Amino acid sequence: MIPKRRFDAVIVGGGGAGLRAALQLAEANLKVALISKVFPTRSHTVSAQGGITAALANVSDDNWHWHMYDTVKGSDYLGDQDAIEFMCRNASSAVYELEHMGLPFSRLDNGKIYQRPFGGQSQNYGGAQAIRTCAAADRTGHALLHTLYQRNIAARTQFFDEFFALDLIRDADGYVLGVTAMEIESGEPWVFEARTTLLATGGACRIFRHSTNAHINTGDGLGMVLRAGLPLEDMEFWQFHPTGIPEVGSLITEGVRGEGGFLVNKLGEKFMANYAPNAKDLASRDVVSRAIAQEIRAGRGCGVHGDYVDLKIEHLGTEKIKARLPGIRELSMQFAGADPITDPIPVTPTAHYMMGGIPSNLHGQVVSPAHYGPEEAVPGLYAAGECACVSVHGANRLGGNSLLDLVVFGRAAGMHMIEHLRENPIPRPLPQAEVEKSMARVARWDRKGGTETVAGLRGEMQRVMQDHCGVYRSEELLLAGLEKLTRVAARLPDAAIRDHSKHFNTARLEALELENLLPIARATLVSALARTESRGAHSREDHPQRDDRQWLRHSLYYCQNDQLDYKPVKLKPLTVESFQPKERTY
Ligand SMILES: Cc1cc2nc3c(=O)[nH]c(=O)nc-3n(C[C@H](O)[C@H](O)[C@H](O)COP(=O)(O)OP(=O)(O)OC[C@H]3O[C@@H](n4cnc5c(N)ncnc54)[C@H](O)[C@@H]3O)c2cc1C
């Protein structure tokens, strides 16, 4: 008999998004289960460095309208302007709320929250650089995660740490009624039944070989959604952060350039002025990543292989580096062997963030046009954080906007879930067949023998994605990638877990994660192949222009037959004038 627990809400994911949503529900005295495959404060939010963006105007003149403009422009006009307005309007109150919860922000001399400039931030709709990102040194995510975790403990959220969510449980009417899960230590299956389910499983950059993301970022929520017959949105848009440490992937925050750091090629040239004459090193991330890629291609990369550029910050001085960028110094010394007080940091574009994800609206409801008519919500199912596509980041996310997205939409989702619970007080019967289907999927990994290994197939998938779907793409490259990926995926049934002894559950976990990663990689290639334009982080060398006439729309990918569908971008904000698409320069 599978253990079954019933809650009002089950939250899958204990990062910033999951914790913020859980807090809203727990403080309303609802019974909340939070499932996390790692201890919540080890969630990837912990590694967010640079900060959280809100137009507090503590350092430069600022207001949320300018933040909204920058976000729309940064998204290359693919972001939904209703959601972007909602996020930017609510940013200041979200940051003050965190401050009041006890988040230890760095301070200005006058005691106000410290803010630093980030890429793509401007005053007065494209004017001078704005200084908008609120920071706790270079450990903002760490501070945010611990603050929210402590508040959840106080609010009596029930934590199920080191539980791995497997599948959504949906009934014949399409209601989501909870999830199946596995307790990692024992391998025991569990059923978490709830009238509302929120997916907050974070990003999926582990489809790539070189990534700033932790190994746990395997897009499990996205896999669950695809298996439930629902689509994923805008999967062609992955952000390559300009400044990852080569090979290792560790991130050197944009906050470093915000504090005054700059990039140079092997000739010592500050090359960003050639690509973004105004914003230079603080241009949007897609722009800076392409600039680095071009310098490397032109033979101006640094090092023996010429495959990186240098990020210089010595001129900031020892005191400032130690006070504002202590974690970065540590990372650089440990992983690049360079103390930035005296040496440049080697950097290269590295897979960092997923702009696409589970289609959701600004209440956190998962929406599915093709199955439910125009933008109808999937009853009982919510998504927030990096796994969700609201879409506030469109084709390219601005730095500091993800932590903001987590808390604004985590809270909004929590509030809407409370409403849903009020309107749906009676639990619906649980479809046992769905539970059994999920368990049968897991049981397949008990097989022995096998000619393939999970690690081997995962490595091949990551190489395919790195080589065929990176900063620059083309039809030829993507088609070849898709063919290779198809061959890799076809070998999955021949894979088995070698070690059925003491490491068996972790091995089984990696197998289940691969079952999530492979369709996400496929969604990415298929969506990227179809989009014959260049927009934001999606750069097609064979289609170098943005094409608003044909492509000002969101992609929706269904795994059945690789079906693609499209929906329009919401150009109409909630209360203000639209920002009409125009050429994007920095
Ligand atoms: C190095 C780095 C630095 C960054 N710096 C910044 C920054 O300065 N500012 C900014 O705005 N953004 C930054 N970002 C982006 C931002 O940190 C992330 O987008 C964000 O933290 C994601 O939060 P989340 O709550 O969606 O997911 P996460 O924090 O990744 O949490 C995901 C949760 O889901 C759980 N989970 C996943 N799958 C399962 C499963 N199958 N079963 C159970 N639990 C599961 C995990 O255990 C985890 O608790 C940075 C990203 C990186 C990689």
Key terms:
single chain; 586 residues; alpha/beta; Flavocytochrome C3, Chain A, domain 1; Methane Monooxygenase Hydroxylase, Chain G, domain 1; four-stranded antiparallel beta sheet; 22 strands; 35% helix; binds flavin-adenine dinucleotide
Describe the structure.
The chain is α/β, with parallel strands linked by helices and 586 residues long. Among the domains are: 244-348, Succinate dehydrogenase/fumarate reductase flavoprotein, catalytic domain (Flavocytochrome C3, Chain A, domain 1, Alpha-Beta Complex), CATH 3.90.700; 444-552, Fumarate reductase/succinate dehydrogenase flavoprotein-like, C-terminal domain (Methane Monooxygenase Hydroxylase, Chain G, domain 1). It has helices at 16-27, 64-74, 81-89, 91-101, 140-155, 220-227, 255-258, 272-275, 285-297, 318-324, 326-336, 369-372, 401-423, 432-443, 454-468, 475-490, 504-530, 548-551; strands spanning 4-12, 32-36, 52-53, 115-116, 133-134, 158-161, 163-170, 176-183, 189-199, 232-233, 238-244, 262-264, 309-312, 345-354, 358-359, 365-367, 377-383, 388-389, 472-473, 539-540, 553-558, 563-568. Strands 1, 2, 6, 7, 8, 9, 16 and 17 form an 8-stranded mixed β-sheet that branches. The chain has a 4-stranded antiparallel β-sheet with strand order 11-14-13-12, with helices on one face. Strand 1 (4-12), helix 1 (16-27) and strand 2 (32-36) form a beta-alpha-beta unit. The chain binds flavin-adenine dinucleotide.
